[in-house]
Design a protein that fits this description.
Elements: H1 2-12, H2 17-42, E1 50-56, E2 59-64, E3 72-78, E4 84-89, E5 92-99, E6 105-109, H3 114-124, E7 128-133, E8 150-152, E9 155-158, E10 170-175, E11 180-184, H4 187-192, E12 197-202, E13 214-222, E14 232-241, H5 243-252, E15 257-260, E16 269-271, E17 274-277, E18 285-290, H6 315-328, H7 335-369, H8 371-391
Antiparallel strand pairs: 1-2, 2-3, 3-14, 4-18, 5-6, 7-16, 7-18, 8-9, 8-12, 10-11, 10-12, 13-14, 13-15, 16-17
């Protein structure tokens, strides 16, 4: 601080120009350092070992390596910055369906690989960032069924078949355009939810081989700006982790609520065409993450101006028009007609340079006259600052 005051005193001395210049640069550097320090303190640090490997507008993919060769992956999806979530599923088979537990029908769905889901979303939009597996399904029949409800774009795709198992450990991920939430799953809560997209899952401590190092897919939500709205969605994928490891990793990224999705060999991840986690298992439902780049909007062409309706003339009006034209219009080849054509032609030739000259004069005035007051005011301001500078 003493050195700063000493340099600042040189900055005020009128006869030591080099000291003033050096002190001014030091002040700017100090302010820049303070600003960077405050920014670094405000930004939340990454959990230990994670590094950014892919990113786009509103989305990031982080990776943490382990000696066993099975990395952890975490997607950070900022719904408030234009990123989106789309819930994908296989083809619906309505044969022999019953009523769903949570409403709608307990339909059967075909399954496909995560690579196929990636190709599907990429054919729809260029904003595709990542595709991962989704909720649980019944593996012992095909086409398969979903135990928990699935709602896509406001429509119930499946009402689910799960009943008494995992009592009070069922949850649902509600997804709106700019925020998300995780709530306990009940029939009333599901049907009363205003979220256009809902995905069912389990609590983080549900008994799905909790202490085994197997494939895990978890989701979490975070309120990073503290406004009470969960604008950030987090997705965790790995081939070898315990349930508490997955939940703790999401909480290290700031998640306040966590939910478990299907794991084991179902855990798969494809980002921007690269398969980070891939198995041979096909799945009936997947989660697609879109970045926040703006959609392409085709240029709107102006609408054609409708022509006024042309009314048909009666025979008498047509005869009157012929008489008027015969009287007013001179015959072709007459001196009057030739004079008129030459006059119009010469008018076009003479008017074009005049119009261009007037346009050039207007642009020249804009260029010459507008900056003059600005230059005068700038010179006056510089003179005033110079007098103040050398007074002290």
């Amino acid at each position: 601080m003493i050195g700063f005051v000493y340099r600042y005193s040189f900055f005020l001395r009128p006869k030591n120009f080099h000291a003033r210049w050096k002190a001014g640069v030091n002040i700017l550097l100090l302010l820049l350092l303070l600003g960077l320090t405050g920014f670094a303190q405000a930004a939340s640090p990454l959990p230990d070992g994670f590094k950014l490997i892919r990113s786009s507008v509103g989305v990031q993919l982080y990776q943490k390596d382990y000696p066993n060769g099975f990395p952890d992956y975490v997607q950070v999806v900022r719904l408030d910055r234009g990123a989106e979530i789309q819930l994908l599923h296989g083809k619906i088979n309505h044969q022999g369906v019953n009523s769903g537990v949570y409403g709608g029908l307990d339909v059967r769905l075909t399954s496909q690989s995560v690579i196929k889901y990636w190709q599907e979303i990429l054919s729809i939009t260029s904003r595709a960032f990542c595709v991962t597996n989704g909720q649980f399904f019944y593996m012992y029949e095909y086409p398969t069924r979903l135990p928990f409800p699935l709602k896509v774009n406001g429509k119930i795709v499946s009402g689910g078949y799960s009943k008494g198992e995992f009592f009070e450990q069922k949850f649902m991920l509600e997804i709106w355009k700019d925020h998300a939430d995780i709530q306990p799953l009940t029939k009333v809560a599901f049907q009363n939810s205003t979220a256009p997209n809902i995905l069912g899952g389990l609590a983080e401590d549900a008994r799905k081989s909790p202490d085994k190092y197997v494939g895990r897919t978890f989701v979490g939500i975070a309120d990073q700006n503290g406004d009470g709205v969960y604008e950030t969605l987090l997705i965790f994928n790995t081939q070898a982790a315990r349930q508490r490891d997955a939940a703790d990793t999401l909480r290290a990224f700031g998640a306040q609520k966590v939910m478990m999705l299907d794991g084991g060999l179902s855990t798969q991840l494809v980002c921007q065409g690269k398969a980070y986690i891939q198995t041979e298992r096909v799945i009936p439902q997947a989660i697609a993450v879109l970045d926040g780049t703006r959609r392409y909007l085709p240029r709107m062409l102006p609408k054609p101006t409708p022509m006024p309706p042309q009314h048909e003339m009666s025979q008498e009006q047509h005869q009157e028009e012929q008489i008027i034209s015969a009287v007013e219009v001179p015959p072709l080849g007459s001196a009057e007609t030739n004079f008129g054509e030459s006059e119009i032609h010469s008018a076009h030739i003479s008017d074009s340079p005049t119009i261009q000259a007037q346009g050039e004069q207007i642009h020249l005035k804009d260029i010459l006259l507008i900056p003059i007051p600005i230059v005068l005011l700038s010179l006056a301001l510089l003179g005033f600052i110079r007098r103040l500078w050398f007074r002290y």
